[in-house]
């Protein structure tokens, strides 16, 4: 069985229910790079992207990576699976979501229905004081597909949502490798508007059929409640790695500046205030 690792966008975003959170920029960067290389390799093999869309070292980098949580399946020190969860502030609007840039959102037929149905979910999240999230960035090594590990990382997303305080959310899930059907099996549902289901659509960016699924971390398929509860306890004890803590970096910079001024009290010096470790 794979072990889990967690990456968080910042120390301040980690709830107290987690046993340990550590600001460790070096390890955070290494794991982030590993998951991005896994995504790049898998997406390229699937034909979802072309080589020019990767960085020089093979990483597939998304703009939201540094702003998101990442759930990693690990075998020893290697990342074998990953999923990304971006948590939005309470006042987020449809236009600020990644789904607003999807091919379905641009459709003159289905775009308005998608916007209205997603906005209704945003209103529900705000009224219930729940977080709203977008899940994506899934990648699994071929050996883990169609195994219990594939299901485990998907259920881990529900567990993480519960630990974050309860979330409503959505995912633009590919129908490749049955990702969309797995999310439906776990309790997700396609969006509806005026009693009409929003259909799957072709995504020209990833060159595959996609389906936008919404879910509630508090209401998974009852069949999986016990398993999710076990994963909640497992994730509570998982070390959460974060990038540099900005407050700590600022404090260290101020101390460094104060030390430099004390070392040469008779001279006026100019200094550039930079985060600790910056070059």
What labels would you give this structure?
279 residues, alpha+beta, Aminopeptidase, 23% strand, globular, disordered C terminus
Protein topology:
Layout: E1 3-7, E2 21-23, H1 25-46, E3 69-75, E4 78-88, H2 111-127, E5 131-140, H3 148-163, E6 167-174, H4 179-186, E7 189-190, E8 192-193, E9 196-197, E10 201-203, E11 208-216, H5 225-236, E12 240-242, H6 246-263
Parallel strand pairs: 1-12, 2-12, 5-6
Antiparallel strand pairs: 1-3, 3-4, 4-5, 6-11, 7-11, 8-9, 10-11
Helix content: 25-40%
Strand residue content: 15-25%
Distance between the termini: 40 Å
Taken from the alpha-carbon principal axes, the silhouette is globular
**Rounded radius of gyration (Å):** 21 Å
Give the assembly state of these chains.
single chain
**Count of separate DSSP helical elements:** 6
Query: So, CATH architecture of the largest domain?
Result: 3-Layer(aba) Sandwich
Topology as a string of helices (H) and strands (E) = EEHEEHEHEHEEEEEHEH
CATH homology superfamily of the largest domain: Gcn5-related N-acetyltransferase (GNAT)
| CATH fold label of the largest domain | Aminopeptidase
* Integer tally of domains: 2
At the first level of CATH, the class of the largest domain is Alpha Beta
């Amino acid at each position: 069985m794979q072990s889990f690792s967690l990456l968080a966008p910042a120390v301040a975003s980690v709830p107290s229910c987690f046993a340990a959170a550590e600001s460790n920029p070096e390890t955070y960067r290494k794991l982030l790079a590993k998951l991005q290389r896994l995504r790049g390799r898998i997406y390229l093999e699937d034909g979802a992207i072309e080589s020019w869309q990767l960085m020089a070292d093979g990483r597939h980098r998304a703009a939201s990576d540094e702003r998101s949580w990442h759930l990693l399946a690990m075998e020893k020190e290697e990342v074998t699976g990953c999923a990304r969860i971006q948590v939005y502030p309470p006042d987020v609007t449809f236009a600020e979501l990644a789904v607003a840039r999807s091919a379905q959102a641009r459709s003159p037929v289905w775009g308005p229905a998608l916007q209205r149905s997603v906005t209704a979910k945003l209103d529900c999240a705000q009224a219930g004081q729940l977080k709203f999230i977008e899940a994506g960035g899934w990648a699994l090594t071929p050996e883990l597909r169609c195994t219990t590990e594939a299901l485990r990382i998907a259920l881990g997303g529900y567990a993480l949502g519960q630990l974050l305080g309860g979330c409503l959310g959505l995912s633009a899930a590919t129908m490749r490798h049955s990702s969309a059907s797995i999310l439906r099996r776990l309790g997700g549902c396609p969006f509806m508007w005026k009693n009409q289901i929003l259909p799957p659509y072709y995504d020209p960016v990833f060159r595959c059929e996609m389906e936008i699924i919404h879910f509630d971390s508090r209401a998974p398929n009852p069949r999986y409640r016990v398993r999710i509860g076990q994963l909640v306890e497992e994730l509570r004890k998982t070390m959460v790695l974060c990038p540099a803590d900005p407050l700590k970096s600022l404090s260290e910079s101020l101390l460094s500046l104060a030390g430099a001024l004390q070392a040469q009290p008779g001279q006026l010096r100019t200094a550039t205030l930079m985060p600790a470790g910056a070059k």
